[in-house]
């Protein structure tokens, strides 16, 4: 069975964390050789017959006060929240920038010129119904008839 990249990455991260923890818990030894030179090592045997002293290492104040690392689940939740927020902002911007219909031409004056212009606007797709609905096949058929009747 093939492992996903995420699983492999997670396993690698766990192993790295395990080794880092083990390395940070390593014991440090100090000894002085026959020439009076001070040496430090992680192995007690490196000192040979010299007197070995274990060095106690205290964790730094920064590491003690550091905030615990977030789990990947927490990071994923925050990421998804940011995505939703960004999508909402994009939707608001799109609505604000949406093409607003141009003001309607007043076709109430009932003469041949206005009926001809209305028919042309319907056929070109510029005119819409008062409620904003698009024109349909019936509207276009009537506009064709009006165009042939009123446009000369």
Molecular structure report:
The chain is mainly alpha-helical and 152 residues long. Among the domains are: 25-57, no CATH class; 112-150, no CATH class. The protein is built from 5 helices and 3 strands; from the N terminus they run αβββαααα. It has helices spanning 5-24, 61-65, 72-97, 112-124, 137-150; strands at 28-32, 38-41, 52-55. It has a 3-stranded antiparallel β-sheet with strand order 2-1-3, with no helix packed on it. The radius of gyration is 40 Å and the shape is rod-shaped. Residues 1-26 form the signal peptide. InterPro entries: DUF4124. Residues 15-70 form the DUF4124 domain.
Query: What is the residue-mean pLDDT, rounded to a whole number?
Result: 78
The helix/strand class is mainly alpha
Order of helices and strands: HEEEHHHH
Radius of gyration: 40 Å
Helix share, percent: 40-55%
Strand percent estimate: 5-15%
Q: Which residue ranges are poorly predicted, with pLDDT under 50 across at least 5 consecutive positions?
A: none
Strand order of the largest sheet: 2-1-3
Oligomer: single chain
**Overall form:** rod-shaped
Number of strands: 3
Helical stretch tally: 5
Largest sheet: 3 strands, antiparallel
Distance between the termini: 77 Å
Task: Provide tags for this entry.
single chain, 152 residues, mainly alpha, 5 helices, 9% strand, rod-shaped, signal, DUF4124
Brief digest:
Pfam families: DUF4124. The chain has 152 residues and is mostly helical.
């Amino acid at each position: 069975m093939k492992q996903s990249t995420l699983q492999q990455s997670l396993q690698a991260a766990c192993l790295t964390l395990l080794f880092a923890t083990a390395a940070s818990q390593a014991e440090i030894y100090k000894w002085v050789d026959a020439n009076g030179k001070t040496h430090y090592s992680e192995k007690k045997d490196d000192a040979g017959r010299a007197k070995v002293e274990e060095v106690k290492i205290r964790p730094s104040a920064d590491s003690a006060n550091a905030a615990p690392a977030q789990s990947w689940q927490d990071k994923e939740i925050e990421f998804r929240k940011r995505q939703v927020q960004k999508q909402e902002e994009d939707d608001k911007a799109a609505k604000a920038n949406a093409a607003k219909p141009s003001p309607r031409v007043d076709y109430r004056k009932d003469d041949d010129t206005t009926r001809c212009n209305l028919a042309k606007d319907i056929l070109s797709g510029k005119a819409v119904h008062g409620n904003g609905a698009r024109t349909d096949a019936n509207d276009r058929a009537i506009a064709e008839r009006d165009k042939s009747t009123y446009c000369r």
